[in-house]
Amino acid sequence: TTTTTTSTSTSTSTGAVVLTSTSTSTSTSTSTSTRTSTSTSTTTTSTSTTTRTSTSTTRTSTSTTTTIAGNFVVAGAGAPNVLNTGTSFTGLAATDFDSVLAVDNTLLRVIEFYFDGRPPRVLLNTTNAGSSFDPYGISRFNSTTYLVTDQGSGSKRIILLSYMGVILSTSSVSGGNFYFAAMQNDGRFLVSYSTTPQQVAPYQTNLGASSPTITPIAGVTAFSTGTLTPRGMASFNNTIYGILRGTASTSIVACFTIGATAVTQSRVAIAGSQGLVTPLGLAIDSVGNMVVADVGTPNSVFVFAPNGTRLTTYTSGITTPNAVAVLTSGAVVVAMPTSIVLIPGLAAPAPTVAPTSAPTSTSASTSTSTSTSTSTSTSTSTST
């Protein structure tokens, strides 16, 4: 604000004298107020990209080969899901949580592997299972209980293991080497012996008891497999399935019944004519499709329909597949000597109409949101 005041007074007389009186008063006040308010919110850009790849494999009555490129999640050497390298995975069992329990036969432990970035969890090792612990196979009884076959020197046994890693019961086993087991809903189960005598032997557990036990089933004789070697086992709808390995034309998957006096072979689920070469691991999905790990040439993972017809042959990236498991999502997990591999979407319900090709559909969605907010306020007033 500026204010100026001027006052002038003049008087004149006739004597030629001029007197001039001038009074000037100047008052200047200047006030300038400037207010600037600036509010700026930093530009935030969030981008979410989701890519979903679904692959439908060829399912026909003849052998087909399907490649699902880029779908591997490998928990092998150098990957974050592995505790150590140089291991030998020999057994797998799926959980209800889209994870697997894996047997590491070199570092002598049972590990849970996840596929969401979490580190693995050790359930059993020589610390809590004893210094002679030498695990090979594992099978699921229910969501909280598993069977582990232990080849320990001088203490061969079957271990009843809880999901939390607690040993519920053990049973000493006599005879030759045994590798795999599978259990019925009533607590009876079969164990495969692969050295003389080659057989499938019956056991039972009273799992509901406060202190469950494992015992051979009295009065029930084992099923002799003759020249065929019993290997991987699995159960579905209270029926136990097992691999009987011979040659490329004689290897089969059979179903077994635990009778009142003997274990019998009730039917052949996969015939030798379906192309099994050297089958080792077995799993069954939610609709009865059988998934077989085959270490023959070429190393493969096969999927067979419940009627024994081969649906899919998967070979990409497969090296010496020792065991397989099927997650609730339908993904197949393969145990290889030094890695655990996830193959999404390989196990699926048997189709009503077999497609003639193996289409792959990929859908990708990307959403980007950007928010920028800038507020500036300036106030200036000047008066003169």
Annotate the secondary structure layout.
Elements: E1 3-12, E2 18-27, E3 33-55, E4 65-66, E5 73-74, E6 89-94, E7 100-104, E8 109-113, E9 121-125, H1 126-129, E10 135-142, E11 145-150, E12 157-162, E13 167-172, E14 178-183, E15 188-193, E16 199-205, E17 214-216, E18 223-224, E19 229-236, E20 239-245, E21 252-258, E22 263-270, E23 279-284, E24 290-294, E25 300-304, E26 310-314, E27 323-326, E28 332-336, E29 339-343, E30 360-381
Parallel strand pairs: 4-26
Antiparallel strand pairs: 1-2, 3-30, 5-29, 6-7, 7-8, 8-9, 10-11, 11-12, 12-13, 14-15, 15-16, 16-17, 16-18, 19-20, 20-21, 21-22, 23-24, 24-25, 25-26, 27-28, 28-29
Number of strands: 30
Derived structural class: mainly beta
Overall mean confidence score, pLDDT: 73
Distance linking N and C termini: 5 Å
Supply the number of helical segments. 1
Q: What share of residues are in beta strands? A: over 45%
Q: Give the low-pLDDT segments.
A: 1-86, 349-384
Radius of gyration: 39 Å
Q: Judging from the principal axes of the Cα atoms, what is the shape?
A: globular
Q: How do the strands line up in the largest sheet? A: 4-26-25-24-23
Most strands sheet? 5 strands, mixed
User: What proportion of the residues is helical, as a percent range?
Assistant: under 10%
